[in-house]
Amino acid sequence: MILRGLFQFKAAVWGYMEEGRGARRLRILTIGILFSGTLNIGLIAALVASSLKDDAPVPLQTARISKQRLSATKGELLESMSKLSFMELATYLTNREPVEEGYAKRDLALSALVAFQFFNLEKALSASLPQKRLFALSEDRTIELYPALTEEQYEAVIRFAYQEKWPLISKGLFHLLKKRLPEQADESLVQAFIVTPEFHALQTLFQKTKAPREDAELVRLVCEGPWDVLDRLYREQSHVLDLSVDKRRSLLLSYLAYQSPTAARMLLQTDSTFARVHLQDAGILSLLEVLKAPFPEAERFCLELLHAPRSDAVWQAAAAKLYSYRGEAMLTPLDVQAVLRRFGALPAEPQQIAVAEPVTPKVPPKKRSVSATREHVVKEGENLWKISRLYKVKVDEIIQWNALEKEQLFPGMTLRIMGSGSSQGTGSEPPW
User: Fold this and answer.
1) Which residues pair with 396 in a beta bridge?
2) Angular region, 214: left φ>0, alpha ψ -120 to 50, beta rest
3) 3-state DSSP assignment of residue 77
């Protein structure tokens, strides 16, 4: 009985203890549930408050600042790329690193190649230019972006950039020629420029106005002026074709405004009379200033100016140019008649002009020896051969005595005939 009582007491105590543990577990579970619910409610409230805050309108000033910051990132990259060389930019064509607004670095590099290095994108793609967007680098500078190029198009661009020797548009070829000078440029570069449509417009103008020039001379003419002169000619001819002499003269005067020696030479070789008659004194002085190297048309032009009713400044410049061509110092004060006599435009002594003697058919004129230097005034239709037969001298001797560069004479020109040989006349007509 005692043992049974002990067992019953022990069972009662154990039951009580188990009942206490269950209550405590229930209380802990209840507290945990309450804490979790409170935390969830707080999180939900925070999310709602955040969403309401995001939906609130952003002040206009803040929105502008954000947009400017985004544009500055792209603009700064383009500004830095504008200072890179062609090959440095070409290395970026495989760089897919994103920048902003869906653009990658290769997109910006391609735009920089086209804008700053004159890359011929249209020829690289063998098609018209793709979709493009304008991006303002500054208030007065914009650049084209090409966001829609495919992988195949980028591969074509990369091949063209690396395999083509001169992957540039006409303007880029021009700048390379101007930088390297036509005489020192690679022949392939010159040939690449010659086949451009802009240069073809220049060729056509000179050919159709019956004043064809060598390609090398036209290239030198173009490089002595800015790109805008040739580009303007091409655009005007594309709009309205004008192959008149006046158009050619206007073009040469445009290059002459940039002190082009080639334009000055061409103008005197093709339109000397126009220049002498129609140019004002200021234009004549500018023309004479750029005539550095001597050539026959330049000397003749200076002599014609000394005969023309021009200002003293023009006469002074023309005389100075003639003396500089001969490597002589000009005498001062200026004596126009003395200059003309010095350079063969007037006889040394007017009374020594040869006068035709009457010829009697039955009694031929007597031969007389010639021992002194004589002068012959060239008449219309005469040439060196006729004059040499008249004075019984050689053509080469006449050229040597008068320092002639070519067998080219003009009426009124005075030739010196040295005292050698004999003549049957006095310089009037040949005896045959």
Assistant:
1) none
2) beta
3) helix
Task: Check: CB of residue 117 under 8 Å from CB of residue 89.
Answer: yes
Domains of the chain: 69-163 (no CATH), 170-278 (no CATH), 296-346 (no CATH), 366-432 (3.10.350.10)
Joined together, the tokens standing for residue 185 give: 């440029």
Maximum pairwise Cα distance, the chain? 199
CA distances (Å), 22 to each of 18, 30, 34, 36, in order? 6, 12, 18, 21
b/e 257-288 (16+ beta carbons within 10 angstroms → b): eeebbbbbbbbbebbeebbbeebeeeebbbbb
Residue pLDDT, tens place only, 25-68: 556 666 666 656 666 666 566 554 554 444 444 343 333 333 33
Q: pLDDT, tens digit, for every residue of 365-388?
A: 444 444 457 788 888 778 887 888
Cβ(112)–Cβ(84) below 8 Å: yes
To the nearest 10 degrees (0 to 180), the angle between helices 261-278 and 296-307 is 30
Q: What's the pTM?
A: 0.62
C-alpha distances (whole Å) from 256 to each of 146, 183, 261, 291, 323 are 40, 20, 7, 11, 23
What are the respective helix, strand and coil percentages of the chain, to the nearest 5? Answer: 60, 5, 35
